[in-house]
């Protein structure tokens, strides 16, 4: 069995293949060519810290794999004297004919990249494909996911303004300075107020651990698209609940939604479809003024696709 560490993952990963891997994983989901369950959660007693397991099987010539991601979600890591990321992960990849372990792949970078690319896939298929405007992007959250989403959306879309808000303003300011420098641009703008950041935005991405809404119904312009990624108290804490009643809500997978979005179902929200159906043109939002939401949970088969991609790329570099 080989170990592919985070540095190597970063050398091998790229946005275009990650996007394709996410499209394939979501499409195969709808075609019933995957197996995955709701993830298991093992909590450290007396703490909000969790070990989460995500096993999956994806049937695909290029991205197919049998694997299991092990994720730790430790929100208390940000309070350590030397802070650590709150989401850490490793992915085990198995031979689907023998069950032998093939690789253990670092899952920290993969989780950031694949989650960002999943949001981009959702934005492309739910929103951009309908010729909707892509002028202003609002990013709420300047943590690991917020930063990777900024790179990803800069790569795939041509926004004229990318607004950044964060609970701790200094982090958003730092990010804006760093990203304007990195891309030699001035399109990244710091926002002190989440309301002002959201108002007028065409696309909104939320990547926070908040347990209270940071996006209110009245702030979101008609026809805007939201990718809600963060999992605070639950996986739908970032958006005011009444907004879900006024939107078409898309998910990535029903197994996860049944448990992790049970709170939304309980208050009567019906999910329109999984993103795979939109990719396959089986469903779409017709009304251009209807707000759309991608409620991203993250799927095991996305990690299977990514670990296969990284494993194959790794072998290619070794065989050169
Ligand atoms: N949907 C998916 O597939 C995935 C979702 N996630 C979720 O995304 C979220 C962000 O993950 P990372 O960026 O890795 O974490 P991080 O620790 O790097 O960032 C956390 C962010 O949440 C913000 N935050 C924390 N408490 C807040 C509050 N009360 N109000 C407003 N903002 C608050 C912080 O300012 C920071 O911007 C987490 O909830 C994580 O569980 C992570 C991976 C995959
Ligand atoms: O899909 C994923 O890896 C995660 N979703 C929420 C925390 C980690």
From TrEMBL:
Provide the GO MF annotations for this entry.
Answer: hormone binding; pyrroline-2-carboxylate reductase activity; thiomorpholine-carboxylate dehydrogenase activity
Name any one Pfam family assigned in the record.
OCD_Mu_crystall
**What reaction gets catalysed by this protein?**
(3R)-1,4-thiomorpholine-3-carboxylate + NADP(+) = 3,4-dehydrothiomorpholine-3-carboxylate + NADPH + 2 H(+); (S)-cystathionine ketimine + NADPH + 2 H(+) = (3R,5S)-2,3,5,6,7-pentahydro-1,4-thiazepine-3,5-dicarboxylate + NADP(+); Delta(2)-thiazoline-2-carboxylate + NADPH + 2 H(+) = L-thiazolidine-2-carboxylate + NADP(+); L-pipecolate + NADP(+) = Delta(1)-piperideine-2-carboxylate + NADPH + H(+)
List, alphabetically, the InterPro entries matched.
NAD(P)-bd_dom_sf, ODC_Mu_crystall, ODC_N
Going by the record, the broad EC class of this enzyme is: oxidoreductase
Instruction: Tell me its EC number(s), please.
Output: 1.5.1.1, 1.5.1.25
Question: GO CC terms for this protein?
Answer: cytoplasm
**Description of how the protein assembles with itself and partners:** Homodimer. Binds the thyroid hormone triiodothyronine (T3); T3 binding inhibits enzymatic activity.
Give the similarity note. Belongs to the ornithine cyclodeaminase/mu-crystallin family.
By what name is this protein known? Ketimine reductase mu-crystallin
The scientific name of the source species is Psylliodes chrysocephalus
Task: Kindly list the organism's lineage.
Answer: Eukaryota, Metazoa, Ecdysozoa, Arthropoda, Hexapoda
